[in-house]
Design goal:
alpha/beta; 10-stranded mixed beta sheet
Length: about 350
């Protein structure tokens, strides 16, 4: 194991840029834009609402999305949101990537994401974890579909980013999979008392799975990996308590894991640190100063809580925007250090 650990203190870092939702790059008449497009994955009869962040050229085009003529064909990044969230809460990351010449692609996972309407939210979908990688692979396929873009993009070197359940999704694309019985054992222990991840699906109340179902899930897990994903950035990833250690050792792509040390949702040692401990050469960044699990989504103004944890209101003294800008330093350092540009 070659684990590189960084503890993120909020001093001494130089912020190279600021990101806004309608930022223009005036020198080349390039504008940062976002667009949401609906698709259908006919292979599994499943809708796919995809949000794109990109640099738009000054000239109109006949494609669904008009990219600047200077767009690099290889700079493509996929973003997977957390459980029951949406790409609409990941603008801070999507626009940041677009500002650096990346086409960022946010996948809304049907059954979990509220963007499909409250009537389509299915709490049990959180347990069908294999559907998320299916959504991502479909999104990668869509990038090459005629008429989506005015210029061709190469999809053999995709960077995958995700928050919480999206962090697991990112890692699953590179080979992570769940170990039968591990979650149930952990969630029944005292160690799991403060782990909100155990509240999803309430494993202790579920009937044991049949051998047939376990075999089926095993086959589905084998299909989660996508060789087109060549780099992983997991933001406070979930499901560490359920993931096989052996599967993490099989991950060979460059991996960056960023997690909140004083976590109010997913204990750092069980999730973020666990992942990085078992992935060869992984980089681990620990955020201090009270940052919680939801510091990785856009600033918001709501009293909504998730499992008793505030979605929009951070602990006193936590500056969500400042933390996100500093996280981006690590994200882009990882990207360029590994030659993904």
């Amino acid at each position: 194991m070659n684990l590189n650990i960084t503890i993120l203190f909020f001093t001494g870092l130089v912020l190279f840029t600021s990101f806004g939702c309608t930022q223009a790059l005036a020198s080349d008449e390039i504008e940062l834009k976002t667009k949401e497009v609906d698709f259908i994955n006919q292979n599994v009869n499943r809708p796919a609402k995809i949000k794109f962040w990109y640099q738009s050229g000054a000239e109109p085009c006949e494609a669904t999305i008009c990219l600047t003529p200077k767009q690099s064909s290889h700079r493509v990044a996929i973003i997977s949101h957390g459980a029951f969230g949406s790409p609409r809460e990941m603008n801070w990351l999507g626009y940041a990537l677009a500002s650096q010449g990346w086409v960022a692609v946010g996948v809304a996972h049907f059954g979990e994401s509220w963007v499909y309407g409250a009537e389509n939210i299915d709490p049990s979908s959180a347990m069908r974890f294999w559907q998320r990688p299916q959504d991502v692979s479909f999104a990668i396929d869509i990038l090459s579909k005629e008429g989506v873009f005015n210029t061709s993009l190469k999809t053999d070197k995709i960077i995958m980013l995700g928050h919480s359940s999206g962090g697991f999704t990112s890692l699953a694309m590179a080979g992570a999979y769940l170990e039968a019985g591990k979650s149930e054992t952990y969630c029944a222990s005292e160690k799991a008392n403060d782990d909100k991840g155990c509240n999803y699906g309430q494993p202790s109340k579920r009937k044991p799975m049949s051998k047939e179902m376990l075999t089926k899930i095993g086959l589905l897990q084998e299909q989660m990996r996508d060789e087109r994903v060549v780099g992983i950035i997991a933001l406070d990833p979930a499901l560490g308590h359920a993931v096989s250690e052996q599967s993490l050792k099989s991950i060979k792509v460059p991996t960056l894991v960023i997690g909140s040390l004083e976590n109010d949702f997913l204990p750092y040692s069980t999730h973020s640190k666990y992942y990085a401990n078992h992935i060869q050469g992984a980089n681990l960044v620990g955020i201090k100063q009270g940052a919680g699990h939801f510091v990785y989504i856009d600033k918001c103004d709501s009293d909504q809580e998730v499992k008793g944890v505030a979605l929009c209101k951070d602990r006193e003294g936590v500056d969500r925007s400042a933390i996100q800008k500093q996280i981006l330093e690590y994200v882009f350092s990882f990207i360029y250090r590994n030659g993904f540009s």
